[in-house]
């Protein structure tokens, strides 16, 4: 059989559309890592809660999809901030300021993940819920060779890019974004600049959780919504974050897109029955040749 | 302006400052001298609010600020210039400077202060879009001082501005500290470079093992045999001349 | 919300078991391990316990009470095997009922064969279950090898022979795929037009659908567990594959989450099953009403009918078995009594008969499949019966 360039192109396009979603979840994980010095193992659950909030806003409240997306992001951000204030902050303090608190924080993240899954189970049950959203306002894209990209994938890609651009603008061109970067780099100096560090930490956490929620609302209509959906997304997003260079924000996005493309190509040309391992295969490959990840050039200086 | 009463502070169970009393009057230049590990940096952190007091109190402008968080103290005008290595290397020079003005909203005044910083340290204007990680040691020191000026301080506290710098650069920087003082800002300089600091300052405190060992007019301290013996060697007259021009 | 209810019901059925109050020395101990993670799963588990309670209240088995222990294996092999071991060696059950997912049932067959405990399979369809040569295994549902033949006949004659296969990695779906592929080749001499082996819980079928779309196939087989199948169906329409391309479901297509999650994408999907809620027989109508009024389930699928038939067949066998009080002898007696069940007419679409040989011919007792099509998706889905087919005993065997 002659090599089919059209389908190769299609696999890459679909890889990118799912990859940007991994990217925005990875972006949240990286934000939290650079801002709070913790690896947030319950971030998959923020994605799951976001998807459920979106579903409730669309189905039960009757909001149009774009408003539900924003609503879910806000609600999840508030949930994340509440969790950070109530649980994580004590631990990060016990570790000495906002520095790495080591094992305790990691276990707390795992515990939070299990707890949140169970809370969601009590509210929404174990069964997958269909997320029916009206996406007719989005155009269907057709590429050369009759590759059609459906509305939901177009939407996913567009919104992810908008979110990334908005985050970039916020961090690079606003005063508060400057403060977030300062806090991420060194909390003591940020304090000396007159920045309200605890508030900024909440903001970082909320932002990261809001991004996770956006991914959930974007994926929901494609894959249905289920309490256990967070785990796999967390794994993929971690792989994306590490591939791109842990803590690097552009790296998170590039890592996400790479993971998306790599796993689609692996599924297409090697075997689709073990699709989830390709993300980790890529991870191992990248770590072998560049242990700091693709964009992990700048070694972080921690006080 | 700043009054410290029986200040005791440290880390965990370790008590480093063991009853410090200091008083700094408005518009003066005061220096705190001591060797490594005597508690100089701890004292600055306690005044900035980065570490809590175990005992004692601090008041500023007649108001007790002992319980205030660091960012609240910055808003009241207590601004600490960090050590040079603590610029934000991934931000540009101008971003670093604007970060200094984080608590201020008056755009016009911020712009004026930025111009003043560039006037004091022209090299920063040349490097304004460069990442601060690419600057030389002396330039970074100028940057962190400039960043402190941007906060619109009433009192500026400097943590070893002469550390690891060539003598010529140190002179330049101390000259500029003097210029800042002349704009009405109270200065507290923490130093190991005793000679330079005492030439710059009007009053000096000498700290050892967490207590103030000696204090007095800078001119008296320079000639104090105990200080001379433990810290100073050689003549100070020539550097003094350059500095006060 | 309603799920609190669900959870509580689940917790009670799982923990309390039944008949503790009536327990005395002559109990017949029955262990059940099934997939009970969904609303349906908990309901059919509860239904089995309720039916057993009914038998006890009506006087039991020749005066003896049935003491049933219900455990949830969540469709996970390790849990299923652990449950089976606990039930066989700790609870010392006379009869083991299990399980739902083929991947769980397969290893349990070895447990019961080694321990010498009769095992009634409520839901699993994988052909290999009865091909292991265990003399202790009996299957209530229709074996996958029969489904393959039924599907192939209908697909080849009514839809076409250019079929794309999407095969998820769970044991039931792997079996369903292999069976249809084998029968399509045997009957019509065709290979799959496209075949994708995907993960058990795959979420993203877009690349496959895109490829299938470009091939102009007659039909797509989606062989996967319910939620995975529903996602694939939705994504097939998203990819722009029209309704003229028929979607063929694997055995899991009968599960309620398929029409519920797939919604409009479920319409037109057809599949072979052992029971159709659209069945017009009086017994089926009564059953549907009973399940609806007792458990609030709209249109029970064959997971319910099979669970119900299983309890009835168990009741018949236990009544016929000559129980003496010796555990090993009683287990053998119950096995032989099940092997003697002939021509049972229940909810299943045809009669169920077993025999003594440890062969698939004897132990795949249910050979009648019904082809069902969804005429409407969503919570209040509707189905129709397309055809009813009984296969030969040795159909699909090498």
- The percent range for strand residues of chain A is under 5%
Percentage of residues in strands of chain C: 15-25%
- The helix content of chain C is 40-55%
**Computed structural class of chain C:** alpha/beta
Task: Specify the overall morphology of chain C.
Answer: globular
Number of helices of chain C: 13
Summarize this entry quickly:
The complex is a heterotrimer of chains A (303), B (245) and C (398). Chain B has 245 residues and is of the alpha/beta class. Chain B has helices spanning 40-48, 70-76, 93-100, 107-120, 122-126, 137-150, 167-182, 194-200, 218-223, 225-230, 237-243, and strands spanning 2-11, 14-24, 29-33, 53-60, 63-64, 78-81, 155-159, 186-191, 203-208, 211-217.
What's the SSE blueprint?
The complex is a heterotrimer of chains A (303), B (245) and C (398).
Chain A: H1 5-36, H2 43-59, H3 65-94, H4 103-124, E1 141-143, E2 147-149, H5 151-173, H6 175-185, H7 187-192, H8 197-223, H9 229-244, H10 249-269, H11 277-289
Antiparallel strand pairs in A: 1-2
Helix pairs in contact in A: 1-5, 1-6, 1-8, 1-9, 1-10, 2-3, 2-4, 2-8, 2-9, 3-4, 3-8, 5-6, 5-8, 6-8, 9-10, 9-11, 10-11
Chain B: E1 2-11, E2 14-24, E3 29-33, H1 40-48, E4 53-60, E5 63-64, H2 70-76, E6 78-81, H3 93-100, H4 107-120, H5 122-126, H6 137-150, E7 155-159, H7 167-182, E8 186-191, H8 194-200, E9 203-208, E10 211-217, H9 218-223, H10 225-230, H11 237-243
Parallel strand pairs in B: 3-8, 3-9, 6-7, 7-8
Antiparallel strand pairs in B: 1-2, 1-4, 4-5, 9-10
Chain C: H1 2-16, E1 28-34, H2 39-57, E2 66-72, H3 77-90, E3 95-98, H4 102-115, E4 119-121, E5 137-142, H5 144-159, E6 163-168, H6 171-188, E7 194-198, H7 206-213, E8 219-223, H8 226-238, E9 246-249, H9 257-262, E10 270-273, H10 282-295, H11 302-320, H12 327-339, H13 360-363, E11 364-366, E12 368-376, E13 382-390
Parallel strand pairs in C: 1-2, 1-3, 3-4, 4-5, 5-11, 6-7, 6-8, 8-9
Antiparallel strand pairs in C: 10-12, 12-13
Helix pairs in contact in C: 1-2, 2-11, 3-4, 5-6, 11-12
